[in-house]
Specification:
- The protein is an alpha/beta fold.
- The protein is 27% helix and 24% strand.
- It is built from eleven helices and 16 strands.
- Strands 3, 5, 6, 7, 8, 15 and 16 form a seven-stranded mixed β-sheet that branches.
- It binds NADPH dihydro-nicotinamide-adenine-dinucleotide phosphate (NDP) and zinc ion.
Amino acid sequence: MKGFAMLKIGEVGWIEKERPTCGPMDAICRPLAIAICTSDVHTVWEGAVGDRHNMILGHEGCAEVVEVGSMVKDFKPGDKVLVPAITPDWNSLEAQAGYSMHSGGMLAGWKFSNFKDGLDSEFFHVNDADGNLAHMPEDMSLEDACMLSDMVPTGFHGVELADIQFGDTVLVIGIGPVGLMSVAGARLRGASRILAVGTRPTCVEAAKFYGADEFISYKNGTIEDQVLAMTDGKGVDRVVVAGGGVQTFESAVKSLKPGGKIGNVNYLGSGDYITIPRVEWGVGMGHKQLQGGLMPGGRLRMEKLGALVSSGKLDVSKLSTHVFHGWEHIPEALQLMKDKPADLIKPVVIL
Ligand code: NDP
Ligand code: ZN
């Protein structure tokens, strides 16, 4: 079978591989559509997860099941499915401890295009099919289905990690597709005021649609100076970090009220340390919490988030700005995500 792969750090191309085999609890799927992720850019060009050789890319998409193992109960060939980017081993100790995304080790629930071949291939393998696949709602478009793999669950996880409460003033740093879903999640969680950091006009427009009230450009001075000016020097209750680099945490801590919480879902592709400013962290006693997490995967979450979309309570259609048709467009879509033109939010390839 053919697949579009990371050949080594900084190099991608088409390769031929054996079709994966199906274990008793697994499924083999054929992608119907795939989406490209900023994480692919970190992985390929920054080598952020380390070097990978001839590893097929892709962890976002929807698919048709072509084969299931003998123990799979709820899926059969021909079923259309949502595929989460994170596919944990549900019987692992980490999953029992509540951190399924780290089943088998740090970040090891993230298997596609990290520890095994991903979705940009004629066929791909899904471990624990009953635990990780979800039936695709019938009326859902392929583009919307792709947004459920990673963008919705990750953006919403930022909201969960920041523990957003009714009436909170929230700062969302980064309004690419992930941050946009954090804005949408913050509104669903009852934030009273949402400040958003980002400059690309298409993203700013989408952020307004999803519920952002005011905007900050990281190019116009520090984020914290602007936040403090907009909040009478008080700062915000919660911060979701979905963009920027290692330096962003200093701004996040400085923008936060005592007792505030930061939820990070940004993938820090480079730099060795993040800096926590001593004074603004209450000289160690400010009750400012910082949590960073990989999105939770699995079937239940996919079904619930899918229901939010199919019920009309969450409109993800604004995210798919560039839709291609045909395998041959995968390299172009990846390059687009690397270049981030002003009108791009997310590229999707219908196969
Ligand atoms: P984008 O690159 O599309 O968006 C990044 C956003 O951050 C943009 O709004 C950008 O602004 C803004 N930004 C850039 N530089 C700065 C800065 N110095 N300070 C503040 N804001 C800045 O990324 P995505 O939305 O696709 O992804 C966001 C992150 O989430 C990525 O790192 C991705 O790898 C990660 N991720 C994490 C996952 C998880 O499970 N935790 C899963 C999936 C993705 P501008 O408008 O100017 O471009
Ligand atoms: Zn992704």
